[in-house]
Design brief:
The structure is a single chain. With 635 residues, this protein is an alpha+beta fold. It contains 24 helices and 20 strands. Helix 19 crosses helix 21. The longest helix has 36 residues. The radius of gyration is 44 Å and the shape is elongated.
Length: 635
Amino acid sequence: MHPEHPVNNHAWIDHLPEAALLVDAAQDLIVAANSAMGRLMGIDRQSLKSTPCTRLFADQRPQLIAFTEETLFRSHGWSRDFMVKHRDGHTVELEISASRVGEAESQELLLLLRDRRQLRTLRERHDANHYHRGGLLEWRRVEELFKDMERENQLILHAVGEGIYGVDAEGRTTFANPAAERMLGWRIDELMGRVIHRVVHHSHEDGSLYPLKECPIYAAFRDASIKRVGEDWFWRKDGTGFPVEYTSTPILDNGHPVGAVVVFRDISPRLQAQKELQKALEEVESLKHRLEMENAYLQEELSAEYHFHEIFGQSDAIKAIVRRIGMVAPTDANVLVTGESGTGKELIARAIHQSSTRRDRPVIRVNCAAIPKDLFESEFFGHIRGAFTGAVSDRVGRFELADGGTLFLDEVGEIPLELQGKLLRVLQDQQFERVGENHTRAVDVRVIAATNRDLKAEVQAKTFREDLYFRLNVFPIESVPLRRRQEDIPILAQEFLNRACQKFNRPPLALKEGDVETLKAYHWPGNVRELENVIERQVITADGHLDLDLAGSDSSARPVTAQAPPARHYQGDLMTERELRELEKQNLTRALTMSAGRVFGDDGAAALLGVKPTTLTSRLKKLKIEARQFQVRQN
């Protein structure tokens, strides 16, 4: 600053070779700006005059205040932390030198602003000129060394797919093969003599600065050792980048390192393949976990004793149920099946599912009475690992398993009142969150509920939510008790008799007219389930023929109008559940002994017992019987 210029005469600022601002720090005003400043920002310099300086650095106001205070205190300052916006929208990174103008009490500052990108270009141009001027002999000597090597390996350099380039001891490019040119987007003549680190290796993948002193490529000839890097980042001429792996091998001349050869490879396809593989593995793992859960639930259903798989009967009550199933099955309406225990409510639910468009997806059964209160949400909606004590892995809930299919809520009246609201919300929105997770999951689930309670009375008693009742009871179906459809008893009894004879490997038996009348005379409080149990017990105790003289037994004949509960003890030989299992085990053991441990085939145990081999295998597994123990060993 020339002292002969008065402070209020600002014509001198336009003669400065660099972009300059004269700022009144006390009032945060730009007093003057030169033409170079206008060119730097692409605007008229006069538009800057009398505007707040902080407006130029709107996103860096705190840094500008700190920088201004430091300059006023020290009378000078320097920073590379500021940037301004050019009129065309691009950002100009700045290097700023600042000094106080005038006396010590003056609050005016002169700021000289330089474009950092332009400075880098100028420095590289200067370094290249200096190198060519001052080290021509050394350059030629090293160049000849590389030329000799290049001549010997010319075919290899042009044939290999990896990029190869050489650098001298100062990091300047000495050669590059065609593969390197293709991958980097630079011609060899554009790279020759330039510090290649500043061209293609200046920044990490995230854009952060990669100092030259930290570069493994140059460490190779500094340490005279080979450096291998499995994953790094190179930048192309067009500004895009790509991941690479490379090896930097030092070149020695009389024991002294004079440069290095770098061999690099674009690993984008490999990383992309790894990502796709990882994504596929995650999807497979997710599907595997879901299928395992579905299998576990379905196995649980299969292991349960279903009493029948089809609806049998010709009564008006059964015909009415079948008609209602036919009406509601094609829709997605929720269904409430009511009726006494043992009447086949679950059978109706499965018939609705099998007659619907959802038949290809599973029907997931939930016994609401068997779910502990504190595990209700986890059982219905699932949880993530660590959601609560004992949650050691992610768990898929029943709603998610039933996505696209049917959810059968058995004994829905057993759900505690305080938990019914959570179920209602999912039924309304078809959305839920796993326990411990914030991610909302959407499902497409058709709900069929069943209960032996009078839910309408429970709604009036305030023990069941009215809104949940109406949400479930869109289409009601009553499962009629057996005593109200006596004409179906002979059909059901004969079906159960055939199944029991096959199950226990007994000769076929038939019902007599007297047996039918005896069965019709009974009240059947346990409904169809009780009828099946009675038939099975009679088959087990039958001695060549069926004897349904039930007088004095727990199924003794009573007029239907008597409405008296059945007796609970038989006057004869009874078998406990344990004895029945032991009897079945002995029967299976005899069959395996006769078949020498063979399950399959015409002379296998399954054929002897009259059951499917898969059914026999399941029973053997359940009873923990190893078929190979009965195989005859050859000496």
